[in-house]
C-alpha cells in the first residue's frame, strides 16, 4: 500500500508534466502550421495586388505611347495639352507620383505635375535612362532613388521611345513612390512582426517593411531569398537567414513577366509568440494541478504511514494479548496438572498399598483360594493404575482417539471417585444417572477429559467450596431449539 501511494506521489508530478509536454508540443505544431499558412495566404494577396499595380503601370505607358506617337520633342514640350493629358491620366492614382517625358539627351520635356519646374532638368544619369538607352528593353524598372524635385524615395517604371528607324528617342518614365508599397506592406498583419519585400531579380530592394537590417538595399546572392529565386523552388521550411542570423519562414512569388518578386517572411520567435503565451498558461495550470495532486498524494502517504504504524501497534498488542492468554492457559493447565497429579499420586499410593498388602498376605497364606483372591485384588488394583495412566495420557493429548460405543454412566461413576481427591474436600461430588442411557460413539478417554475439565472449572468457580452434581440424560439433536450444529440423531 505504501509503495502504491509512493508511486502515486511520483505520478502526480510525472503525469501532469507529460500531459503539459504533449499539449505544448501539439499546440506548437498547430501554431507553426498556422503561421506557415498565413505566410502563404499573405504572399498570394500581396502578389495579386502588386501585380495589378504594375499591370496598370503598363497600361498607362501604352496609353501615353499611343498619345505621343509621331510627335517630335518640340511639339511635346510646347503643347500644354500634353501635360494636361499626363495629369489626367494619374489624377486619381495614388501609386504614381508623376510621369515624365524625357528626350534622347536625358532632358525632361514634359511632366504630369505642372507645378514642377523642369527647365534644364536632366536625368541622363538615372539607371532607367541608361538602361533604355544602352539596351533595347521594352519596360525597365529601376532601383529606388531620391526624386530631385519631390525629395521622396521613388523608383522608375520606364519605357523606351524609338524613332521610325528603331533608334533611341527618349524615355517615358512613371515615378512610383516607395511609400505606397511600404503602406501596403504594413497593412498586412499590422499587429504582427513580419518582413515583406519587393525585390528585383538582381537583389535590388524596391520596397520593404520593415527596412532591411542595417539599411541593406540589396540582397546578396547567398541570401535565402535569392538562392530560392535562383533555384526556382518555393521555400517551405524554417531557415536561418545569413543577413540577420535569425530563423525565418518565407515564401515568394514572381510578378508575372516582370523581373520582380514579392516575398513575405516571418521570424520564428514572432510566429511562436502565441505559443509562448499558451505555454505560460499551460505551465500555470499544470503546475497548480501537479502541486495539488502532489500534496494530496503526500497527505495520503502520511496518513497511510500513520495507519500502518497504528496497525502494527494494534497487531503487536493483539499478539501480546494472545501470548498472555496462552501463558495464562498454560499456567492454568499446569495448575490443573499439578492438582490432577496430586490426586493421581494419592490414588496410586492407595493402589500400591493394596498391591503390596495383598502380595504380602498371599505369601503367608497357604490356602489356594485365598491366594487367588489376593491375586485378583492385585489385578484389580493394576487395572485401576492402567486406567489412571490412560487418563493422564488423554489429558496430555498423547492418546490416540479410539471411538467406540461407550456407556456414559460407567465413565461418570468411575471418574467420580477420582474427582473427589482431585478437586478437593471442600466440594462435594454427586451423580444423577439416567436409568436407561443410550450408548455414545466416542473415545472414553476424551469424555473423561471433558468431564474432568468441566469439574476443574466448576471448582474454580466455587473457591469457598460447594456441591458439584454430574447428570446424564438422553438428548435428541433433532430439536432445532437445542443443538442446531448437530445432524439429527
Feature tags:
five-stranded antiparallel beta sheet, rod-shaped, 15 strands, 54% helix, 489 residues, six-stranded antiparallel beta sheet, alpha+beta
Model description:
- The chain is of the alpha+beta class.
- Helices cover 54% and strands 17% of the residues.
- The protein has helices at 2-68, 73-78, 80-89, 127-134, 178-186, 224-231, 268-271, 273-364, 368-395, 408-422, 444-461; strands spanning 98-102, 108-111, 139-141, 145-146, 153-162, 168-177, 195-200, 205-209, 239-240, 247-254, 260-267, 404-407, 427-432, 439-442, 466-471.
- The longest helix is centred in the middle third of the chain and has 92 residues, at 273-364.
- The protein is rod-shaped.
- The two termini are 51 Å apart.
- 22% of the residues are buried.
Amino acid at each position: 500500500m505504501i509503495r502504491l501511494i509512493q508511486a502515486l506521489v511520483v505520478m502526480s508530478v510525472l503525469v501532469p508534466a507529460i500531459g503539459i509536454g504533449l499539449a505544448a508540443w501539439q499546440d506548437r505544431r498547430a501554431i507553426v502550421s498556422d503561421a506557415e499558412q498565413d505566410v502563404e495566404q499573405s504572399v498570394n494577396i500581396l502578389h495579386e495586388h502588386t501585380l495589378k499595380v504594375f499591370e496598370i503601370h503598363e497600361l498607362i505607358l501604352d496609353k501615353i505611347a499611343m498619345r505621343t506617337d509621331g510627335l517630335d520633342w518640340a511639339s511635346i514640350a510646347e503643347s500644354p495639352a500634353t501635360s494636361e493629358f499626363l495629369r489626367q491620366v494619374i489624377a486619381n492614382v495614388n501609386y504614381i507620383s508623376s510621369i515624365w517625358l524625357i528626350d534622347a539627351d536625358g532632358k525632361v520635356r514634359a511632366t504630369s505635375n505642372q507645378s514642377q519646374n523642369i527647365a534644364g532638368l536632366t536625368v541622363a544619369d538615372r539607371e532607367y535612362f541608361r538602361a533604355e538607352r544602352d539596351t533595347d528593353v521594352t519596360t525597365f524598372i529601376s532601383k529606388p532613388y531620391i526624386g530631385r524635385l519631390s525629395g521622396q524615395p521613388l523608383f522608375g517604371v520606364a519605357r523606351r521611345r524609338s524613332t521610325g528607324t528603331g533608334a533611341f528617342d527618349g524615355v517615358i518614365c512613371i515615378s512610383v513612390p516607395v511609400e505606397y508599397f511600404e503602406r501596403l506592406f504594413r497593412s498586412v498583419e499590422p499587429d504582427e512582426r513580419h518582413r515583406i519585400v519587393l525585390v528585383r531579380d538582381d537583389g535590388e530592394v524596391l520596397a520593404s517593411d520593415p527596412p532591411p537590417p542595417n539599411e541593406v538595399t540589396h540582397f546578396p546572392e547567398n541570401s535565402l531569398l535569392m538562392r530560392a529565386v535562383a533555384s526556382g523552388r518555393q521555400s517551405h521550411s524554417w531557415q536561418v537567414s545569413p543577413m540577420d542570423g535569425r530563423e525565418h519562414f518565407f515564401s515568394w512569388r514572381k510578378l508575372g513577366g516582370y523581373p520582380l518578386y514579392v516575398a513575405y517572411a516571418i521570424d520564428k520567435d514572432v510566429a511562436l509568440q502565441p505559443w509562448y503565451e499558451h505555454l505560460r498558461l499551460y505551465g500555470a495550470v499544470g503546475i497548480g494541478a501537479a502541486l495539488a495532486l502532489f500534496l494530496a498524494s503526500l497527505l495520503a502517504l502520511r496518513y497511510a504511514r500513520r495507519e500502518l504504524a497504528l496497525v502494527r501497534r494494534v497487531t503487536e498488542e493483539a499478539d501480546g494479548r494472545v501470548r498472555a492468554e496462552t501463558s495464562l492457559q498454560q499456567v492454568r493447565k499446569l495448575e490443573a496438572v499439578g492438582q490432577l497429579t496430586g490426586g493421581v499420586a494419592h490414588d496410586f499410593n492407595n493402589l500400591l498399598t493394596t498391591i503390596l498388602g495383598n502380595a504380602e498376605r498371599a505369601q503367608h497364606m497357604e490356602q489356594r483360594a485365598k491366594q487367588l483372591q489376593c491375586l485378583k485384588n492385585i489385578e484389580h488394583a493394576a487395572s485401576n493404575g492402567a486406567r489412571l495412566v490412560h487418563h493422564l495420557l488423554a489429558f496430555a493429548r498423547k492418546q490416540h482417539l479410539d471411538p467406540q460405543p461407550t456407556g456414559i454412566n460407567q465413565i461418570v461413576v468411575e471418574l467420580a471417585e477420582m474427582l473427589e481427591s482431585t478437586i478437593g474436600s471442600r466440594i462435594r461430588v454427586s451423580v444423577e444417572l439416567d436409568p436407561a442411557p443410550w450408548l455414545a460413539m466416542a473415545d472414553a478417554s476424551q469424555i473423561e477429559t471433558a468431564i474432568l475439565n468441566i469439574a476443574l472449572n466448576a471448582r474454580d468457580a466455587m473457591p469457598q467450596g460447594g456441591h458439584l452434581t454430574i447428570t446424564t440424560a438422553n438428548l435428541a439433536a433433532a430439536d432445532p431449539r437445542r443443538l442446531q450444529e448437530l445432524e439429527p440423531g
